[in-house]
Predict the structure.
Amino acid sequence: MFYAGSPSLRQQVLDFIRQQCTDHPTSLRPVNLTNIWSLLSKYLSGSDSHDAETHSNMFHDITAIIGALVRLRRDLVSITLPHLCIVLSQLIRTLRSPRPHLGMKQHKLVADTFPKWIDPSRPLGVDESKALARLLSTLATKSIVRTHMQDTHKHESLSRPLAKHVTYVIEAYVDALNDPLCGMSTEVRRELQPGLFILCGMLSEHARDALMISALDAGGKTAMKQLWREYEKQKYVGKG
């Protein structure tokens, strides 16, 4: 399939989808969105072979596609939120980098979790983290759906419907921090924080507690508590 083809072919496919989503959003139908999520997920899935260099432009194209869908076709995104969260979780995992001094077998285990277009020895960095943070921020930004019947849609965001699903995206971040074979640099984490805080703002206390109790091990709980402390700290900055 073309998502496993040459870098130029893969790039052309993403360019085409991005153009359709940004320039012709009214032409999209539910079946199109299902296919787009499936394709993006395949682009972000692990591979046992990798390109000779990391093609970070593919990451930016994927975030641009999702951003356009969120801004312009919220009506379609809202009925495919589990698919959206799967892809967001995969994007977060691409920001990891292998820990130094891994053995050959360990490095292979890690490398196979990265998409084909990422050379694990040349991981994504700050620019990609910023791009993902901007994308996560758009989830809470109100917009008007662009269809042939625009006046039937309110000026809304995805915050309320997404609250039921956002746990899985936060869990993906915590798991990335807690991975014994991979890490996420301080700079990447710092640039990603504004977007993560948007997700934390959607998460109810009940969902947060359920995540802490049932889904995370000791290391994950520590990482989650740290994230929540940072979220609470910035939330109340300037308040007496």
Observations:
- DSSP finds twelve helices and two strands in the chain.
- Residues 218-235 form the longest helix (18 residues).
- Residues 205 and 211 are 10 Å apart (CA to CA).
- The longest strand covers residues 97-98.
